[in-house]
From TrEMBL, chains A, B:
GO terms for biological process: pantothenate biosynthetic process. Belongs to the ketopantoate reductase family. Its EC number is 1.1.1.169. The keyword NADP applies. Keywords: NADP, Oxidoreductase, Pantothenate biosynthesis. This is 2-dehydropantoate 2-reductase. The lineage of its organism: Bacteria, Pseudomonadati, Pseudomonadota, Gammaproteobacteria, Thiotrichales. One of its GO terms (molecular function) is 2-dehydropantoate 2-reductase activity. It comes from Thioploca ingrica. InterPro entries: 6-PGluconate_DH-like_C_sf, 6PGD_dom2, ApbA, KPA_reductase, KPR-Related, KPR_N, NAD(P)-bd_dom_sf. Catalyzes the NADPH-dependent reduction of ketopantoate into pantoic acid.
Length: 317, 317
């Protein structure tokens, strides 16, 4: 299997929102060829392009390659999946028409289990993943607001290791001003991100709170820490080890952040489906399958399942 | 110590709300002498009396013995404590002036630890407790709405047993049309009530839901059952045994109830302090002191502590 991409690399963005819209626009601004798949924002983006309000400098791309139909997109070398994981059931229809024979899919989503889904569609050797450390959200059609951070940790799914194509893609992102950390262990990076996502995404929804509010009250802060400790134990089910110091640093780092609403909280407020499957159910499934008990993660998971159902039943509540 | 009350029995109601207002009014309507301590509703009740909207028949008491100051109340044989437990810090000032030497305090509150507080004030042999099975709430000053049920389980604190005075008080309530179950084991009855209160009070606040909504979703129903199982285990710390069939019956019974907002949910919506200390912290304290691990009760407790703080900080949220 080829793990080197051609010198001229064509990108596709599947899901032009807070993540895909931001990174895609930065890649295009840096001179790369980028094709954007859009759904509800298609008409606006055809007319007005993409607007990025960013702490690193505002910019507009008046003209972008926008599509409603994947069959109109030319074959691409790197197909970035930046949909919500709740849309991943669409991937069997979306990926095959646009992925170049020697191309690769780069999954920029949180949680676990997405690489396995994509591997079944395109083959396990055409899959990469990335974990984005970014505060951004869509404020309107084709209009992304980037508040803070922006780096990506990227790695191969199989085979593990720093391949030529991984370095090529990292170089493209670097050219676009995006810091990339290449990892030989994508799964470890995914579990590490879950140390943050599970407590903060989950509790922000259940307790209607920002990161700062959760850390400033002794009881919720204790729950954050307990949940992080459970994620650490859960990771051992995949033979991944998370150091105690990593957890301490993540708490300290989050304290220094501006008060922040995690993506699941924003989804909840917008009455969108919550990414419970990828962020909670897949990790729980792996860990409980290995006989690990996670009472607090499990309780939070069940609370979110309830709230997600109610939230979609009562859209104007 | 005298455990018989005089033939002519004078009642005081400390806390004339959903519980004390309803039972006190029923006792007075049945011909008993009742004295009501009031706070914010004093002026209205002096002017208009007590209004009871009840499934068992509406009635008004145009004239009641209403007081703002305990020192104006004559010595009483039975002092009913029906304040919120969050007000129990006031009891050292409220009880001594009105409790007859041979009288008894009857605590109609949910949770644990109240008898111990009152015993320290009036002596452990002048304490009784009751658990109310009632759906009622205050709809306005001196205006109580009684939706369903109404029976009370009553017992002595120390010594345990069916005393003469317990039978006398039960007879007074019976005369007022209130069913009373006399118990030789008040503490068991309190733990049994917690099997209901801990899941439904707690989850109704955290998940913004009625009893029916909690039971109709598989995940929240599972949490209800898990929490009930934890309360069953917690009760063993006090050498009290709750049968599995009791839990099953409680679930079935709650399913047959109309959709219901537990008192803690009503308190939360009205931005009143939540009864977390009596209903969660005391049981947790007893059980964890005995080395019992209760991860889900503990998590729910911490979530409520956070929400209670936020709810009082943001009164108009």
């Amino acid at each position: 299997m080829e793990t080197t991409l051609p010198n001229y690399r064509r990108y596709a963005i599947i899901g032009t929102g807070a993540i895909g819209g931001f990174y895609g626009a930065r890649l295009q601004r840096a001179g790369l060829e980028v094709h954007f798949l859009l759904h509800t924002d298609y008409a606006t983006v055809c007319q007005s392009g993409l607007v990025i309000d960013s702490i690193e400098g505002h910019f507009t791309l008046p003209q972008v390659n926008a599509y409603q139909d994947v069959h109109q997109i030319p074959p691409c070398d790197v197909v970035i999946v930046s949909l919500k994981t709740t849309q991943n059931h669409l991937l069997p229809q979306l990926l095959p028409p646009i992925l170049q024979e020697s191309g690769v899919v780069l999954i920029l989503q949180n949680g676990l289990g997405m690489e396995e889904i994509v591997a079944k569609i395109v083959g396990e050797q055409r899959v990469m993943g990335g974990i984005c450390f970014i505060c951004s959200h869509k404020v309107g059609p084709g209009h992304i607001c980037h508040l803070d951070y922006g780096s990506i940790t990227m790695g191969e799914y199989l085979p593990r290791g720093i391949t030529a194509r991984l370095s090529q893609i990292a170089a493209d992102f670097n050219q676009a001003g995006i810091a990339v950390q290449m990892t030989e262990d994508l799964l470890l990076a995914r579990w590490q991100k879950l140390v943050w996502n599970i407590p903060f995404n989950g509790l922000s929804v259940v307790l209607n709170a920002t990161t700062a509010e959760l850390l400033n009250h002794a009881d919720s802060r204790y729950l954050v820490k307990q949940l992080m400790d459970e994620v650490k134990v859960a990771a051992t089910s995949c033979d991944r080890s998370i150091a105690e110091i990593f957890i301490e640093q993540m708490l300290t780092h989050t304290e220094k952040m501006k008060p922040y609403k995690p993506s699941m909280k924003l989804d909840y407020e917008a009455h969108r489906p919550l990414e419970i499957e990828a962020i909670f159910n897949q990790p729980l499934h792996l860990a409980t399958g290995a006989g690990i008990k996670l009472p607090q993660m499990m309780m939070l998971y069940r609370q979110l399942q309830f709230l997600d159902t109610q939230n979609r039943l009562k859209p104007t509540n």
